[in-house]
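hiii so um. not sure if this is the right channel but i have a protein structure encoded as tokens and i wanna go backwards to a sequence. like what aa goes where. can anyone help
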């Protein structure tokens, strides 16, 4: 009787362990709901607005919102915010590198929070430089169950101005797939 109870307990522990590993694999592999392989109408609008911002300049675009800026606030829709973000990334070396290895980018704005997400192509990320290659290989060793091609990476936090740039405050959360990692 004792032996069968011990075996049942060990079997239950084994099932829980397998279930935990399956959940971790599924969570880390999860791609956000906004990501689709097909280009949506909103993405096309963002690209058109980004081209407009690039042609006119950020100052001219923000000048249209001058009254809000004078009141100490800047009201942007998610489409406008994503277009500004894309324009900003296209104008910097590091931003272009991020764009080169990303299949998709998205920023979602809510009450005092911004969630910036990227779908990273790990095979492209390995080719950037030696540091990136080692980082991707280290990630593969730490989480061998991750898919070798795509990884959803999100950073959520409160935006602040730091050294003339917009950054996240010190309390932010990084997610790999659906797995949160406090910052």
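sure thing!! here u go:
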């Amino acid at each position: 009787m004792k032996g069968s109870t011990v075996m049942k307990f060990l079997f239950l522990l084994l099932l829980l362990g397998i279930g935990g590993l399956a959940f971790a694999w599924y969570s880390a592999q999860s791609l956000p709901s906004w990501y689709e392989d097909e280009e949506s109408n909103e993405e096309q609008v963002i690209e058109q607005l980004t081209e407009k911002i690039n042609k006119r300049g950020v100052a001219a675009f923000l000048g249209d919102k001058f009254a809000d800026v004078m009141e100490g606030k800047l009201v942007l829709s998610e489409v406008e915010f994503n277009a500004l973000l894309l324009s900003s990334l296209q104008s910097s070396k590091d931003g272009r590198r991020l764009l080169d290895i990303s299949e998709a980018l998205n920023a979602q704005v809510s009450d005092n929070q911004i969630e910036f997400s990227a779908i990273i192509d790990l095979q492209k990320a390995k080719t950037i430089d030696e540091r990136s290659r080692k980082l991707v290989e280290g990630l593969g060793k730490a989480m061998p169950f991750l898919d070798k091609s795509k990884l959803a990476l999100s950073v959520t936090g409160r935006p602040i101005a730091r050294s003339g740039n917009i950054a996240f405050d010190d309390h932010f959360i990084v997610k790999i797939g659906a797995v949160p990692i406090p910052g």
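oh and DSSP finds eight helices and seven strands in the chain.
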